[in-house]
Each structure stands twice: as structure tokens, then as C-alpha cells.
Amino acid sequence: MSLIPKSHPRAKSLYIRERLVEGFDSGLVAKEGLMAHGRGETFDYLLGEKTSKHAQKAIHAAAFALASADYPVISVNGNVAALCPREIVKLAKVTGAKIEVNLFYTNQIRKKNIVKALRKAGAKEILGINSKSAKRISGLDSARRVVDSNGIYKADVVLVPLEDGDRTIALKKMGKKVITFDLNPLSRTAKTADITIVDNVVRAINKLILECKKSKIQKIPYNNKKNLAGTVLEIKKNLSRRMPHA
Ligand code: ATP
Ligand code: MG
Description:
Layout: H1 11-25, H2 31-46, H3 53-67, E1 72-76, H4 78-83, H5 85-95, E2 98-101, H6 108-120, E3 134-136, E4 146-148, E5 157-159, H7 165-173, E6 177-181, H8 188-192, E7 195-197, H9 201-213, H10 224-242
Helix pairs in contact: 1-2, 3-9, 3-10, 5-9
The structure holds adenosine-5'-triphosphate and magnesium ion.
């Protein structure tokens, strides 16, 4: 039972924190994941905690990329498993994507807990857990470079929510089309990915599912750098609007 009163002005943000703390207590989330959430939260605050028109455009482009992919894969880490496991399963279902558990801070026990949480959320096939199909990708140090040969390794389009920059760069070097959810429009991941949805994954994933459910997704002109620049301008405008005036 939540201790946060519904009337609290920051209730939504606090509920999300609560889910992460529960995810930490049940062995899904790494300590570092809690801190990474803090960085995300800051940008969410600056963006006004809503889906911007730029994020909506990126969601549309992402839906088109997933619908036209031959072998799409969704990468899941601890934070994502704690925040939106059911939505990940739904998205995989509507796009025909595979789900792979892939952790920055590799840890077998945490991996097992994440698999359990995804199964509970309805996932049938989960990749990234069979050491026989583990493949190494180049350009990363040992702990961070393992992917599944039937998953990310084989994928043409990968969705990597809340990913680290080094790993995103390595995926791009492998020739993958990379889609990410990342609240920081200035991160290396945001700048390296082909499509960056600058929005809270909790808020934006349902919008992506809705977009993917449409029977015909139109191809739209999309430029990620331009979209990110537009997002930064939006933050600037928000800051001026909300600046305290003496
Ligand atoms: P990079 O390695 O890409 O330069 P970083 O080192 O600053 O980024 P990481 O911890 O590697 O950050 O990646 C986590 C990213 O996920 C951060 O950019 C953070 O803003 C973002 N993030 C955290 N929580 C959420 C969330 N709920 N929704 C969307 N993005 C989030
Ligand atoms: Mg990083």
C-alpha cells in the first residue's frame, strides 16, 4: 500500500519512485539504477512531465521502424522491468518483437528476478538467459558486451530503453537501427540513437503501443538531431516561463 496521498502535488512522480524502490527491494533494480532514475527525473521536471510534440513525433517514427523491421528486439534492464513489465510484453506482442534481458551491471541473480517479473507479466519467450547462445560484441569491456545470438545480435531494429552511451555506440557500429527512451536529450545514447523518444518510459510506452496498434503507420520525415534540438529549445522555453521573478 502506498504511503503517498493522492492529493500530493508530486504524487505521480513519487509513485514512480516507489515502484523503483519496490523493484530494488525485490532484486530487480541495481543501486546505480536508482541513481540513473534521478537523472531522468530531473529532465522530466524540466520538460514539464508531459509528452512533448517532439516526443510524439519520435514515437510515430519508432512505431514505423518497429512495424517495418524484419527482426525487432526489445532490450530490458532492471529499471524497465520494475517500471513497465506489462507494457513491454504488450509492445512485444503488437510488434512481433523478441524480448531480451540485457544488463549494464551484469548479475545472474538480478537477471533471474527480471525474467521472473517478465514471466509474471505474461512474457512467454525471453532471451538473454541461455549462456549457450551468448555472443560477444566488440568495442566494449567484457562484462558489458554479451548479447543473445537469437536476440540483439541478430536484430535489425533494437529498442533499448534507458541505455548507456557506450553500448548504444557499439550497437550502431554493428549496423543496428537503434530506438531509445531517454529523458536526457543531451546524453550520448540520445545523440547516437536513430530515434530518441525524450519522455518518461512510463508515460511514453503506452503511446508507442497505441501507435503500433494502428493498422497502417504512415512514414514521416524524421531527423533525430533536429528533433533533439527542438526538445532542448522546449526545455529552454520552459525554464524561462517558470523562472522565479524577483
Ligand atoms: P549516456 O551513457 O547515454 O551518456 P548517462 O551516462 O548520462 O548517459 P546512463 O545512466 O548511462 O546515463 O543512462 C540512463 C539514461 O536513462 C539517462 O540518460 C537517464 O536520463 C535516462 N532515464 C532514467 N530514467 C528514465 C525514465 N524513467 N524514462 C526515460 N529515461 C530515463
Ligand atoms: Mg552512461
